[in-house]
Protein 1
Amino acid sequence: MFHHFHDKKSHSKSQGSISEDDLQRLIKFIGRKNILNAEIFYEKLKSGSLKKNEVCFTFDDGIKCQIDVALPVLEDQKIKAFFFAYSSIFEGKPDNLEIFRHFRMNFFKDINDFYKDFYLELNTDLTKFFKINEEAIKLKLEKFPMYSLEDIKFRFVRDFYLTREKYDDLMIKMINKKNIDIKDLYSKLLFSKEDLRTLDKLGHLIGLHSHSHPTKLERLDFNSQKKEYDQSSEIISKILDKDKNEINCMSHPSGSYNKDTLKILKDMGIGIGFKQVMKIEPEKGMSKINNSNLEIAREDHINIIKNMEK
Ligand SMILES: [Zn+2]
């Protein structure tokens, strides 16, 4: 599972990002012959003939650095991958997730400097909130070893203490204080419709990743979830000039889904869906890893890089 890449030009190094060189080394580490083209991986999954050593590459969130940094490597190595972009990007109303991330990583001395400003702007005593969530924070830290304690605490405040609206307002206030124009950042950071068409023409598989990338999709009711996926299917298929049922792969935004989500996706004819972690999550009704074709486990690229260095 890939997200962010950096280069020496427009994509600066940030939390969890890797370089073109890292990607090349990662391919070597896994072994080129073990990396299947997305279409082949999908076919073999359906027929139950995947071997233990066989993997595929997936790219989430429609982030421009994937086009600028990773795509040339993929093309050079003749690897066809899955790309999952959430569709509000293409409506000129992207989720601010990526923008906020860029802001956090590029306009502060370091991430802790950002957290300091963030809590100043929030201006609330969070002692009680952190106390109540102490155990859950600990669990999250184990589940996502690439994050620091401060990273996890920030995500808890963002996802559970604040509402989405309040978080967005707060961040936009911080951005405005630094005199940055958000719209300028969109084209630099996110896929255009043309990028999506290019990937499709090159033979990569384009799939769904919800419409607005809710941080916790599983907290939405059935109809809201259905709207998220219907809308994304509508938009993506239109951009690619395809039939809706030709878009049949997806990944769960922030790894968030529940039984409703799986039913919605199944009814839509989605045949393959990817999770965010390599762990069994019993609360989601999982009894084993790769519990169903809509729950294929993924390893974060950062964990693979860490393993390479051992
Ligand atoms: Zn995502």
Protein 2
Amino acid sequence: MSIDVKDQPTGAENVVWDLTDLYAGVDDPAIEADINQTNERAEAFAAHYYGKLTALDDEELYEAIQELESISETAYKLGNFAQLQWTLDTGNAQYGGLMQRIREWSSQLEQKLLFFELEWTNAPEDFVQRMMEHPTIQHYTHWLETTRRYQPHRLSEPEEKILAEKSVTGRGAWNRFFSEFMGSQRYEFEGEELTQGDILAKLYVEDREVRKRAQQTFTDNLAKNSQTLTYIYNTLAAEKASDDRLRKFPTWISSRNLDNEVSDEVVDALVEAVTSRYDIVARYYTIKRDLLGVDELFDYDRYAPLPAAEGFYHFDKAKEMVLNSYTKFHPRMGEIAALFFNGWIDAPTRPGKRSGAFSASVVPSVHPYIMLNYTANARDVMTMAHELGHGIHQYLSREQGLFQSDTPLTTAEMASTFGEMLVFSDFMEQETDPKIQLAMLAHKIEDTFATVFRQISMNRFEHGMHTARREEGELSAERFAEIWMESQRAMFQGSVTMTDNYARWWSYIPHFLQVPGYVYAYSFGELLVLALFARYRQEGADFAPRYFEVLRAGGSDWPEKILAPMGVDLTDPTFWQEGLGEIEALIAQLETLVEQTK
Ligand SMILES: [Zn+2]
């Protein structure tokens, strides 16, 4: 019998953050003073610059951006303080009230200042060129570039206004209808009325019969609503096609790539690399089939639970493990990570506190804060490593200033996932119980699969669906199903048997409709880190200083350029192959552990 770890102190009880680096509390008079002063500065900014951007010289432009950044920084500081305070005690009306007030105030402030970015976006090309060549402006080059990146795809002012107004009853209305329609569905299951979340959660239970029945119940509902769902998909795909045509985007994915600050070429290289290694997926599911002790793996078996080995890790032990791994990578990395343990982390679980974990960058003039819900299991150690990775990245990129410290989605998870890999590989070396090793490794692999392979197979579905909608016109439910099954069959390569029911499972995924093209960014981030990690293992100590530079650069340039000094060429499929090779190595390690624990 093992002792009940639930009653043991986790060591996180007194690890709380100190927000006085921002404000002393809700009643701090500095809050009121900052709000008033920011209002005055925003008024003065508008009075001074409104309608005059193209009359500025380089030094005046630089000063204007600095002032705008500084005004925004105070607004961010207020917003972060209100948000962080509320996070720990979401039922506190005073905290909630302050947060709402700051939100409404910030949105008004934004309206007042928005003209500046719009004037820059619409400024004539020759003025822009002249300004960008000035060394004075150098620091803000990337911000200025990204602010203008949508300009070639913008329509005239009156056209934009009409599109914006009509989108409320167009795309917006269809998406809302989809969400409300799916949200209102109830699923009859063993005498109970379940929500979508509850019925899909049954796919994660141990009892295979329950999983199978849940899959059937969910499928029956999708079949019943097939006409409605197919109509919504067709309408939104057509709407996107006309939007892309009007805005002159060459492909269905181009507008998303522009958001993510990557070229179509880079995304093509990523997709090509991942789809060429679907054999890794098949190899893993063959192991999973054996671990579950079944002859054939069906689609409803994919999320069946693997052997769990939770372990117990006192907070101090976890802190030591994480700091050791970071220090081993580079002493400076360990020093920065250690800073967080003096009042920048809030770790215990408590009533009213938000769930999950995050690292908030807050503002460059202060420092990041990390929230955890530490319960002392092995995955909590990984979460600590993950959030500290974000924290270190945010801490180092502060020198870029507010406007250029944040990275786009594609590289936002770089430092966190890399930090997790550092701690994970040490964890696997130090853990002596092969059962715990096996459980940890299998979870790691399933997480990696969910981000790398599943997202790309979904990207292939999106590609097929948007291409077919543009070439063939309105698509039938059967045609959608065909494209879906083709994308899924390609990935599983026979290792998972897909039932006929599964052919309907494209129709409930909200991502496809709400943020078309979004899914590949997950794969991008994860694979980038795995490839960097492979380089780190080859290069050893030479790797760390260059990696530091990448983190320090924050969002001050295009990701391709920031990563170039690491010898990384994102347009080259062989670079992505290095990351895929790491996944393959994890599978090989799992196969060995399976042999050892037989
Ligand atoms: Zn993260």
